Amino acid sequence: MLISLTNSPSTGGGSIDASLPSLPKMTHHHLVFKGSLHNPLLAPRGVWSVDGKLMVSDTGQNRVFIWNEIPTSEFEEPSLVLGQIETTDTGRNAGHQVNASTLQYPSGIWSDGKKLIIADAWNHRVLVWHSMPSTNGQAADVVIGQPDFMSNQPNNHQIGANPTAQTLNWPYGVFSDGTHLWICDTGNRRVLFYEKIPTENFKAADEVIGKSNFFERDYEDFQPIWPYSARINEAGQMAVADTQYYRVLIWNDWRTANQQNADVIIGQPDFSSNGQNQYSLFPKPNAMNWLYDTFFYEKGIFVVDTGNSRVLWFKEVPKENNASADNVLGQFDFNTGSENSNTKLGTDKQLYWPFSICVSKQNLILADTGNHRVILYQIKN
């Protein structure tokens, strides 16, 4: 059932400290969703929704679930599972050798309702289905990052091997506008760009963001250090969640991202700064800790501030470095950052290391990873 949501802590009948800032509600209903009743979610790290469908990377159990309709109760059986043959199976690569049907630590998801793309992170590859899967364990049509479906070594060789335009190393994030494709090649500290979604295996990327060529692994502080997700909005802006430097990099035009440094930094005052919560014990409205995802919405942007167990909302995409957020979800103020801050057992209003976010129409969908659940919010108009 849907429950009314506020940004305030549960007080168990007591009063809320009047000195705390009063923040407007961002959402007015939400549903805590835990997946299958008989085999619930374990550390889900990827969520996506399109055409009324819900897709979840059940990362800890090496599978991706698809629900053909947005769930309306705490537990619902999935319409199908990818990476496994049965919804109760959980083994890495389905307990066998890697192939076109298996997954190992799936993360980012993107779909337009026709194509489906999944970042199969620990197999060091990205899988593409040219049409939406219709059966459990359906094989992917294309593999990116590996020469075939039976290979899964980092950079197609071994840990420490230099990358090429064809290889991947721990790719965690994927995004497309329906034509182009961006892959966060996290372990290689770069974002790869493809002019078109590949239709053949081992396709070379067309451009690289964060490096001067396809063969470098070293980095400078003005480059994406540990890019975990990439997003593009309708205005052509690009956001990269740069986890290891506790910041989001914004390019005002994604077409320039391979040619110049980011235009704006969220979470730090400049490129050389890299402190958790800007070297503070407690978070602030302009400081973050281990952020893993963003999502553009209307004129603004959501930032998943994972290490502070919260989601920050900027009602307009910042135009200058070090902007302060306008609102927060998961904590009752901007200065609280502990997981399940009001009780170690957690409540329906608290978060524990959220990783991934998606907005589809008025639905805000969040992978509340540390609590092994997905939360389905309705954004308040």
What proportion strand? 25-35%
Major sheet details: 4 strands, antiparallel
Number of strands: 24
Structural class: mainly beta
Amino- and carboxy-terminal Cα gap: 21 Å
In which range does the helix fraction lie?
Answer: under 10%
Unreliable stretches (pLDDT < 50, length at least 5) are 1-20
> Rg, please?
20 Å
Q: Mean pLDDT score, rounded?
A: 91
Shape descriptor: globular
Major sheet strand order: 1-24-23-22
Number of helices: 0
User: Could you spell the SSE succession in H and E letters?
Assistant: EEEEEEEEEEEEEEEEEEEEEEEE
InterPro entries: 6-blade_b-propeller_TolB-like, TRIM-NHL_E3_ligases
Organism: Arcicella rigui
Protein name: NHL repeat containing protein
What does this structure look like?
It is a single chain. This protein is mostly beta strands. It has no helices and 24 strands. The chain has strands at residues 27-33, 46-50, 53-58, 63-67, 80-82, 106-111, 116-120, 125-129, 142-144, 171-176, 181-185, 190-194, 207-209, 227-232, 238-242, 247-251, 264-266, 293-297, 300-305, 310-314, 327-329, 356-360, 363-368, 373-379. The strands form six sheets. Strands 1-24-23-22 form a four-stranded antiparallel sheet, with no helix packed on it. The radius of gyration is 20 Å and the shape is globular. The relative contact order is 0.13.
